[in-house]
Design brief:
591 residues, alpha+beta, Creatine Amidinohydrolase, Chain A, domain 1, Creatine Amidinohydrolase, 3 domains, six-stranded mixed sheet, 19 helices, 35% helix
Length: 591
């Protein structure tokens, strides 16, 4: 069934049910960013494969609302689908709901599947539509009827990590979460988000591509903890270990009834990480405490064991990246390298590292104009062949048993213009400024974002995405609660957080530049003025200096770059062959 036919079938179901507009968010019952195949609803209906967007469908219009990261990709993928791209003005805003409120008559009915919408999204839709006299039904799944070959839920095996890897036992993590619940005066807590569940239970799996997580819910009460998942995914011994930690396993599909029949007087639910269907199932007598999952902040503050493991993973990743770029340089002139083939080669090189499990997201290998698409993924139709000229952007990462990596580099393949060098150097200057930041305790992510953007803004340039995101420990590559972007998010940057710093510049139809390292927040100084923090750079991969125009850098930026590249060589040389080390020595020479 083509996308146009799927849209028509959906509209027929809307007529049958008396629905004037239907909303499809990009999500699942766990409010995940990356989805199991069963919940890739937007891709199935419209053809758009990006990780952020919302469909709104009426009988005479079907639109995809998404942000600037996906404008070009969405326009291409939606062609001929019956859907039109609607460009979001504010990333993540429910602008589609206000659009519907303006166009639908009072008495109209709008519906969505509450399993796919967070509480926050559901409330935003209701707040936009109800004042206009529009009825909202948050419990209607129209896709299951027409999606005849809808994938089943994944059945891959799961496993538990030991305390030598995680630095903290499941018992201790449960205790710490319960302490936070007491402070919030909540007797129970439902954890829906898969990375929070994985962190609390020291459990990993492969139910979602690139994310080592397991589908499940964890209902935590004062005296018991119930894990709702397919228990067959764990061995008898692992189920026994969870039982010793006080965790009982029940079937995944029992979650709804458990919530509907909960006896607790109060339950903490995270409105951004809990689906509306489960929220609405809570008995009216049970008080809902809406707050961020306690585990989200606990998980973001990496302990010394996790940090030590992550440093080790960075060495392995740096070795793979060094070998990759050397291989590119030696083979690009042959004319047989493509965006897809180099992404495959990079994954092969990472897989040679001890403890490699998977890539941490689909590799973005953007040659020339494709580098201007921040979330580009090569397809058979778009797969460009590399030539010995122009810029190549590689944004990639690995999932190792001892850490998660995420790195972006841009390299010259030859014949670079002065304009490309200037843009590259301005972006590099932003990366360096962010990496060198010194800031007082309590600083928010939007302040780090501004520090990083300042040298870019000074040249009247800018970029549409955030400057950085949290990164998990052998978990999701995008992790909250903190983020470095312009939004006024009231989350402090704290010691132990691992975050990306990744400014960029994008010239549509020409090239894109982004330089990304992961950094660890650490205490730098305590004095009469308070506690000050700074960043330790964790990523270990040379930054291409062939593209640097020194006239745009101050001496402090040149010193940082030279010191960084020298450190990269020092950390990696002993792990490389003599030939590889010689090549890297040349790449890391001081400028």
């Amino acid at each position: 069934m083509a996308h146009v036919e799927r849209l028509q079938a959906l509209r027929e179901q809307m007529k049958v049910r008396g629905i004037d507009a239907y909303i499809i968010p990009s999500s699942d019952p766990h409010i995940s960013e990356y989805l199991p195949e069963r919940y890739k609803c937007i891709a199935w209906v419209s053809g758009f494969t990006g990780s952020a967007g919302t469909l709104a469908i009426t009988q005479d219009f079907a639109g995809l609302w998404t942000d600037s990261r996906y404008f070009v990709q969405a326009a291409e993928q939606l062609a001929g689908s019956g859907f039109e791209l609607v460009k979001l003005k504010v990333q993540g805003a429910a602008e589609y709901a206000f659009w519907l409120a303006e166009r639908l008559a009072p008495g109209s009915r709008v519906a969505f599947d509450g399993n796919l919408a967070s509480v926050a999204v559901a409330k935003a839709v209701e707040e936009a539509l109800r004042p206009a006299g529009i009825a909202v039904d948050g419990h209607l799944d129209l896709l299951d009827v027409i999606w005849k070959e809808r994938p089943a839920l994944p059945t891959a095996k799961a496993y538990l990590l030991d305390e030598m890897t995680t630095g903290m036992s499941t018992e201790n993590k449960l205790e710490r979460v319960r302490e936070k619940l007491k402070a919030k005066r909540a007797q129970a807590h439902l954890i829906s988000s898969l990375d929070d569940l994985a962190w609390v239970l020291n459990m990993r799996g492969s139910d979602v591509k690139c994310n080592p997580v397991v589908l499940g819910f964890l209902l935590l009460e004062e005296e018991q903890a119930t894990l709702f998942m397919d228990g067959r995914k764990l061995s008898d011994a692992e189920r026994g270990r969870l039982a010793e930690a006080g965790v009982t396993i029940k079937p995944y599909e029992d979650t709804f009834n458990a919530v509907a029949n909960i006896q607790a007087d109060s339950i903490l639910l995270d409105p951004k990480r809990t689906c509306f269907a489960l929220y609405d199932a809570v008995p009216k007598r049970t008080r809902i405490v809406e707050d961020i999952n306690p585990s989200t902040r606990l998980k973001a503050l990496k302990n010394e064991v996790e940090i030590a493991h992550t440093r080790n993973a960075m060495v392995k990743d740096g070795v793979a990246m060094t070998r990759f770029f050397k291989w590119i340089e030696e083979h690009v002139s042959q004319g047989n390298l493509t965006e897809m083939s180099i992404a495959e080669r990079l994954q092969q090189l990472r897989a040679e590292g001890e403890g490699f499990v998977d890539i941490s997201f689909d590799t973005i290998a953007g040659y020339r104009a494709h580098g201007a698409l921040p979330h580009y993924k090569a397809t058979e139709e778009s797969n460009a062949t590399l030539q010995p000229h122009g810029l190549l952007l590689i944004d990639s990462g690995g999932q190792y048993r001892d850490g998660t990596t995420d790195i972006t580099r841009v390299v010259s393949l030859g014949n670079i213009t002065a304009a490309e060098k200037e843009d590259y150097t301005i972006v590099l200057k932003g990366t360096i400024e962010g990496s060198m930041a010194v800031f007082p305790i309590g600083t928010r992510g939007y302040q780090i974002d501004a520090i990083t953007r300042r040298p870019i803004w000074e040249t009247f340039r800018n970029y549409g995405h955030g400057t950085g995101h949290g990164v998990g420990f052998f978990l999701n590559v995008h992790e909250g609660p903190h983020t470095f972007n312009p939004s006024n998010i009231d989350i402090a940057v704290e010691e132990g957080m691992i975050t990306s710093i990744e400014p960029g510049l994008y010239r549509e139809g020409e090239y894109g530049i982004r330089i990304e390292n992961l950094v660890l927040t650490k205490t730098l100084k305590n004095n009469a003025f308070g506690e000050f923090l700074h960043f330790e750079t964790l990523t270990i991969c040379y930054i291409d200096t062939d593209l640097v125009d020194k006239t745009h850098l101050d001496q402090k930026h040149i010193d940082w770059l030279n010191n960084y590249n020298a450190w990269v060589f020092e950390k990696l040389a002993d792990h490389l062959t003599e030939e590889e080390a010689t090549w890297l020595r040349e790449k890391t020479k001081a400028i």
